[in-house]
Structures are given as C-alpha cells and as structure tokens.
Here is the input.
Amino acid sequence: MVSYTIRRILMLIPVLIGMSLITYSIIHLIPGNPAQVILGEQASPQAIADLEEQLGLNEPFFVQYGNYMMDLLRGDLGTSLRTKSAISEEVWPYLAATMELTFFAMLFAIIVGVNAGIISAWKQNSLFDYTSMIIALVGVSMPIFWLGLMQQWVFAQELGWLPATGRGNPRDPVETTTYFYIIDTVLNGRWDQTWTSIRHLVLPSIALGTIPMAIIARMTRSSMLEVLRSDYIRTIEAKGSSMVSVIYRHGFKNAVIPVLTVVGLQTGTLLGGAILTETIFSWPGIGRYVFDAIGNRDYPVIQSGILIIATMFVIINLIVDLLYTYIDPRIKY
Amino acid sequence: MSTVTKTTKSPLPGPNKQEFEPQKVESISPWREAFWQLRKNKLAIVGFVIIFTFIFVAILAPFLTTFEYNTMRAVDRLQGPSSTYWFGTDYSGRDIFTRIIYGARVSLMVGFFAVTGALIFGTLLGILAGYYGKWADMLISRVFDIMLAFPSILLAIAIVAILGPSLQNAMIAIAIINIPIFGRLVRSKVISIRQEEYIMAAKAQGMKNGRILFHHVLPNSLAPIIVQATLSFGTAILEAAALGFLGLGAQPPTPEWGRMLSDSRQYIQTAPWTVLFPGISIMLVVLGFNMIGDGLRDALDPKMKN
Here is the structure.
C-alpha cells in the first residue's frame, strides 16, 4: 500500500510537468506579439517593452519555462497584471470559495445519485426506476448554466425562497480566517451567518451537482443490478436479513468501486462547471477569477488559475485511486 | 429399431427434387443485428426523431419563418409568445423562433465539425500509438494523459483565450479537447485487435501495414467509435453553448443558443421566454444525441447490455 502510494505520486510528476508546460505555453501561443495583445492597440512601445521584460518574453522559451518552474516550486505563481499583487497571495479566498461549492455540489450529487441509483436497481422496471432514469438522462443533457438561470428565476425571484447570488449577506460580512464560510461562521459562533451561508450554497450546489448526480445515479443503478443478481445476495436474503441491510451493507459495498471511479472523474466536470456556475451565481470562486482574467487579458492569472484547477483535479483522482485499495482490499497493485 | 426409422419423418422434406436444393440461409451481419436491436429501443427512436427534426428545421430554416433572424423591431421588443411571434421576441425585438431555428444550424454545424475534427485526428493518433507502439505510443499517450488531466471545458477556455473568442475558434477548441477521447479509444481497440489471429494471418500473407489497418483494424474498431462520436456530438454542442454563454464562442449577431441565453439573462423575470426556449433547444438536441448514443451502445456492444 505504501509503495503503491509512493509510486502513484511519482507517476504524477510527469503529468504535472506536462500540465505546467501547457499552461505556460498559453501566453506564447497568442498569435502576434503577446505583450501587444495584452496591452491593446494603443499601447506605447515603452509599455510593451516593459511588459515583455516583466513576463520574461525576451528570453528563449525553455529558459523562461525553467524560470517559471523554479518560481512555481518556490510557491510563486506570478503577479497579476491587473491588481499587481502576487497570485499566490490573492488566490486563496477564491480557491476556498470554489472548494466549498464543489464539496457541497458533490455531496448533493452523491447522496441523491447513489440513493436514486440503488432504489432504481432494487425496484427495477418500476415507475420510480423509469422516472429517475429519465430524470438522469435529462440531467446529463441539461446545460448547467441554463439550469442555474431557471433555478434563480423560480426559487429566488418568483418564490423568494433562496438568495440568487453571492456567498453571504454583503451588509453583514463574514469574519474570515479559513475563507470556508461555513467553517468560519461556526468558528466565530455566528450561527445566523452559518445559516445564511448554507442558504446561499443551495442553488449553486444543485446546479453544479446535477450532471454528476445523473451520471452517478446511472452508474450506481447498473453496478447495483449486477451485484443484486449475484448468489451471495440471494443467500443473505434467504437468511432473512432485512432489505436495508441487504442493499446497503452487502449490496452497495460491493457496487461502490465503479461508482467511486465516476465520482473521481466527475470532479473534473465539477471544477470545469464551476466557471459557469460561478458566473451565474456571482460566486467569487477560482472559476470566476479565471474568467474575469480572460476578459482583462490578465494572462499570468489565466495560466496559474488553470494550473491550480487542473492540479486539484489530478489530486482528487489520486485520492480516488488510493481509496480503491482501501475500500476493496482485493485490488492490489 | 427399423420400424422406428421407417415411421420417423425424414429431416429432409419430400421427394421433390427442387426441395433437396440447399436452402439459402440469410446471413445476419452484426451490423444488421445491431440495427434490429436499435429499432426495438424506444428511447433511441425518440432520439432519432428529435435529431432528424432539428436537422430538418436547420436545413429548411428560411422556409419555416417569414422573419429574418437579425431584423430588429424596437416596437415589438420583449413580446410574449403569440400567433405572430411563436416563441416571443427578445430585447431588441427579434423573433426568437427564427433565431432558434437558425441557431440549430449553428449548433449542428459546431457539433459536426468539432466531432469530425476530433474523430480524424484522434483516430490517426490512436492508430499511430496503438499499431506502431514504442516511442510513438509513449509520446502520444502521455500527451493524451496530460490533456485529459484538465477539466475539458477549462482546456477549451484556455484555447479560446489564446486564439481569441469566435465561433470558429470555439469549434477548434472543442475539436482539440475531444481528440484524446477518440485517440485513447482507438488506441485501446487497435492494441486488442492487433493480437487477433486474423491480423497475424494477414501479416503472414504479406499484407502491408496500411492495408491491414484500413481493411481489418479500423472496420473492427468502428462500433465503439460510432457510439463515442454520437455521444461526443451532444457534449460538443453543450460545450459550444457554454463557450457562447461565456462570450467566448459565437459573437453577435450570430444566432447561437448559448449566446442568446447570456444576452437575455437579465430579462428572465420580465420575459422568461427569452431564456426558456434557447435552453430547451440545447437540452433537446443534446438529449437526442445521448439517447441515440445509449441505444447504439446497447445495440453494438453486447458487453454493455444489462
């Protein structure tokens, strides 16, 4: 297990290097003179020369890349062209906001998806099965930005049940230490703010979690169908175990591996979808940070933002891979 | 024993000479069997109906409406659905129905070109990696790994950030992010087929690599490629709409569904139809392709059947 973990982490290194090479190339692949493109048509030659100097564009590509990697290893993600501050310092609040949103979206996707899949498999060909599988099929096909808009319209504007945008009440800002609002408000003992934060999380989490939820439901169903047909389940049933015990204790435990794979892969959908969800719900997360940077041609932020999101995705998949061996001891590497 | 033989009916029918001729046994090709399977799949049929409707609408767009997709009538802005404006009008008084049906052209075109591009390059790279192996496999597979390590829409956004926002660049970006999906699929198929005895037989007969690839390897890996292409069609349309929504895809006045959504979102409360219909259109097309894709997978891949 330990040697596998080490090997698996070592295998990440070439992927991470490749990823950094791709994100680093972004600025160099801009057609024409990157500094000119960033500063616009009216920029003075002096300003262009200064920016080229700042971005290190005057040196050969691999020298620049080497410097960039050295900076990365030191934890220096570059400087934002717009705010002039270090990206590594300003990125954390955005990152925490995205992590909080992604966590709740995944929580929603897993709880609803897994249970819908289990019940569908248990009551195969029932009305519930058909309905939930049609909902899952529609869920996979739905543009999440549209779902988000519809939710805002119905639940925030028409019914007024939930807030439409933001992370909390702007007139009563949360005192931040970790930038995870739920944790911060609990630490401060401000339960009213915790409740406000949760209410703000509901709509974006559901919008973001719908596609993974649908995919998890379909995967759980097919995985459970296979398990429920096996002999040992029939034996446990014959022994007189309760249905809940058969399904959750024995059935799902054995159906969990393919579901886990999907959960890992869907994190990518979540992190990518975060850009859309954060735009709609004005959620101050890393997706929005990158998106705003594209509008401002703030290429260092685009590079680092994309690298951070992709690294998160890779790390989550690593954790999922390591969880396999923990959950299913039969899997040996 | 002999009586038994006498009374038992001969397995061959009557003494008539004609009937002794060997009967023609209709061979059932796997493709025909898959077609039968597909015809029985109600969801797939619904999917085909949806997609053919959209294709029909996209082709016949100018004949289905009396409006131009770009004519603005300020007096008629934000009108609700009526007998004149079936889906209502948008903030600048353009007929939404007209924009939706012209938008079908844009979306189907994006899907087609993006998937075709990804299919061609993915297949070529997959063959190169799978058939020739060694360093080509090593290099191509690592590049695929790295590309797949990015959430797909994020990579598309990065590519558009480099090339600049336009429909064409969005199409290129979507094609690029889908290349590794086809590439990996083709590679794994090619590797498994390469071991088959009939490939060895072809090699032993002195058949050239190119001929083996295009006559044996590719036709035998076609089924999963078709399924993936159908599913990718839906995803590509969804990704194009997402880029359009973020302002990184089609630029105004192109009637693109994602862009229509983002342009109308501030009117959602006063004129919900401006947001409702483009969204439903995206969903229906993607749903159609997903239904066909699921049906094709069940029909073509016996292992996937439940």
